[in-house]
Specification:
Largest sheet: 6 strands, antiparallel
Oligomer: single chain
Number of strands: 15
Order of helices and strands: EHEHEEHHEEEEEEEEEEEH
Number of helices: 5
Length: 213
Amino acid sequence: RALVRPDIALVLLDEPLTAVEPATKWQLRRAIRDVQRELGATMVYVTHDQTEAMTFADRISVVHDGRILQTDTPEALYNRPAHEHVAHFIGSPGMNVLPATIADGTFRVGDQQVAAAPGLDDGPCTLGFRPEWAALESGGTGPAATVSAARVLGVEAHRPVGIVTADLAGRTVRTRQVIDVEPGDRVRLRLDPARLVAFRDGVRVDAPEAAHA
């Protein structure tokens, strides 16, 4: 009803598709998006469905305990979460987090050096990485872990791919990769050093030059 009025500049949609079946939900979501683009009206869309938000919105505000933790583009929320809750909430599975230490310009997990940490102050931190930014492999020199599960989600280039879950010093780690390991295997965690996110007291920390970029 609001959309057909000519004097409306802001439309609030409060979980409008919660009770709609999945197939119809995708059609309605696309229709709402098309109408928004056609009319140019600002829409505030409230949802608990992160997939809905990530595919629908230009900008997303993540609210937790009555506080806005981050307002940003879907890409920024996924790649550079400003808060650990955002890191956990966005993504399926959410971002992995491991206790780590910054020492002499490097990230260390346990006694293993895993990546450079240029410009960050020494001290304890939490190291975050998305499942596809890492791999659990039979060889390598990264932190040791034990595979607990491997779930196939599809096939790429005739090889099974999916989610591998492992225990690393009492912490659960999940990677999205080619599945070439089995439960019980001892593996090493390999990280993409260019895509790590560090947190302190739940808040992302950046090097000074990155913070002002």
